[in-house]
Specification:
The structure is a single chain. Helices cover about 30% and strands about 25% of the residues. The chain has helices spanning about 25-35, 50-60, 70-80, 95-105, 120-130, 140-150, 215-220; strands spanning about 1-5, 15, 40-45, 65-70, 90-95, 110-115, 155-165, 175, 175-185, 190-200, 205. Strands 3, 4, 5, 6, 7, 8, 9, 10 and 11 form a nine-stranded mixed β-sheet that branches. Strand 9 and strand 10 (about 190-200) form a beta hairpin. The chain is globular, with a radius of gyration of 17 Å.
Length: about 220
């Protein structure tokens, strides 16, 4: 079990599924220290597991949080964790990530922050066992970045955060997403991606700007 670090539900206990690698408290704290105020932002947690990151976002005032988790054991524990704290604007999608992203796109849902924490230790072990074939086996993080780049569910000034193992080298670009910051905590790395556009005339990368969302812009400026 773990506790919510800060916000409305600070100190409340979150139950954890067995055999699930939870985000360490120091990484969770570092993540939300980076994000700062999120009370007007929408948040999507992929590979939610216990939902610790999304629930922390709920506690800190995110206006909408959607959790995506396919494992039935995790889904059951997620529903239990939601029983006393999930606001009506937030909900769980018990689907595979690829299916959930497609559904969210069809529903025209968009998010300021997308967080994903794929089960990378098992995934990396499988790739290591592949020996010379390892470079041909993509990590779940890379695959999911490619999926996200194909759907318009990220706000123009929003960003994607990937939690991954330090030896899992993620691409600098994935479709219209580009890596702009990394922070390492022991063996764990947080990689931050945002949308870019490529001017066909100059082929220079230009950041999206959107003045009406001052809060998300200020968050990006501090990263």
């Amino acid at each position: 079990m773990m506790r919510i670090i800060s916000g409305k539900y600070k100190g409340r206990i979150i139950k954890m599924p067995q055999d699930i690698r939870p985000t360490q408290d120091k990484v969770r704290k570092a993540l939300f220290d980076i994000l700062g105020e999120i009370d007007s932002l929408s948040f999507l947690e992929l590979f939610a597991g216990s939902g610790a990151i999304g629930i922390e976002a709920v506690s800190r005032g995110a206006k909408k949080v959607v959790f995506v988790e396919h494992n039935p054991i995790c889904v059951r524990i997620l529903k239990n964790n939601f029983s006393y704290l999930l606001p009506p604007t937030s909900y769980l999608l018990p689907l595979k990530v690829s299916t959930a992203v497609e559904k969210l796109s069809k529903d025209k849902a968009i998010f300021d922050i997308i967080f994903m924490d794929p089960p990378y230790y098992k995934d990396l072990a499988l790739r290591l066992r592949s020996g010379p074939m390892m470079s041909r086996v993509e990590s779940l993080a890379k695959k999911t970045l490619q999926i996200l780049s194909g759907y318009d569910i990220l706000t123009p000034n929003g960003f994607i955060i990937v939690q991954h193992f330090k030896k899992d080298n993620l691409p600098v670009t994935a479709g219209d997403l580009t890596l702009f910051k990394q922070a390492r905590y022991g063996d764990t790395v947080l990689s931050f991606y945002r949308k870019v556009t490529i001017s066909q005339s100059s082929m220079k990368i230009t950041e999206h700007r959107e003045e009406k969302n001052e809060k998300i812009s200020s968050v990006i400026c501090t990263l």
